[in-house]
Every structure is written in structure tokens, then in C-alpha cells.
Specification:
48% helix; Helicase, Ruva Protein, domain 3; two-stranded antiparallel sheet; 2 domains
Length: 122
């Protein structure tokens, strides 16, 4: 397995698919990186040379925020919303949907399983 940006990417898949295993890189950005490095997106990861791997790592370091730095930035953005007390921040703090979804009957993924009234009998 090749290791790029601290992530083991699979050898038996195309490089454009393998790059999407890195947090912050989707299919479009993976193809864009392949274009910049002049690698065919259909190439398997195991067929890459050391030089091509180094050039991919160089582009990721220079041009994109991925993995740890991106996760940190996203967490700081959410923390900022919670600190200033805006509506979205309050919804995040209460672990409720913050993009206008209905919560009376739905939102079970975000709210968790239903808590039943009554409790257990001894």
C-alpha cells in the first residue's frame, strides 16, 4: 500500500479512486491532481513510480488542506459557531440538525434512538 498524507491508499484500485481515501479529496479533486502530475487516472496505484508518488505528495502539501489540518479547521469552525451562540451553533451544541430539516418525526440519525417514556419495572 502506498502511503500519502498519512493514509494508506489501496494498491489494486485506480489512482483517481485511491486518492479519494484521503480526507478532503473527492473524485473531482483526485482527477485534477492526476492532471497536474500528468498521470493517467486509470493507472493502478501499484504501477506508480516513486517520482510520481513524490509529486502527488508535493502537490497535496502545497495546494490543498487535507487530513489533520482540514479536520482541525472544520472542528474550529464548528466551535466558533457554538461560542458565538448563533442558531447553527446552538443546533450543533444540542446535536440536532442545523440545516432546516424537520425534527418532529425524523432526524433519528442525528438525535439517536427514541427514548421511551415510563422506564423499566423492577
Amino acid at each position: 500500500m502506498a502511503r500519502i498524507a498519512g493514509v494508506d491508499i489501496p494498491n489494486n484500485k485506480r489512482i483517481s479512486t485511491s486518492l479519494t481515501y484521503i480526507y478532503g479529496i473527492g473524485p473531482y479533486r483526485a482527477r485534477e491532481i492526476c492532471r497536474k502530475v500528468n498521470i493517467d487516472p486509470e493507472t493502478k496505484t501499484r504501477d506508480l513510480t516513486e517520482e510520481q508518488t513524490r509529486s502527488i505528495i508535493g502537490i497535496l502539501d502545497k495546494e490543498y488542506q487535507v487530513e489533520g489540518t482540514l479536520r482541525t479547521e472544520v472542528a474550529m469552525n464548528l466551535q466558533r459557531l457554538m461560542d458565538i451562540g448563533c442558531y447553527r451553533g446552538l443546533r450543533h451544541r444540542r446535536k440536532l440538525p442545523c440545516r432546516g430539516q424537520n425534527t418532529k418525526n425524523n432526524a433519528r440519525t442525528r438525535k439517536g434512538p427514541k427514548s421511551r417514556p415510563g422506564g423499566k419495572k423492577k
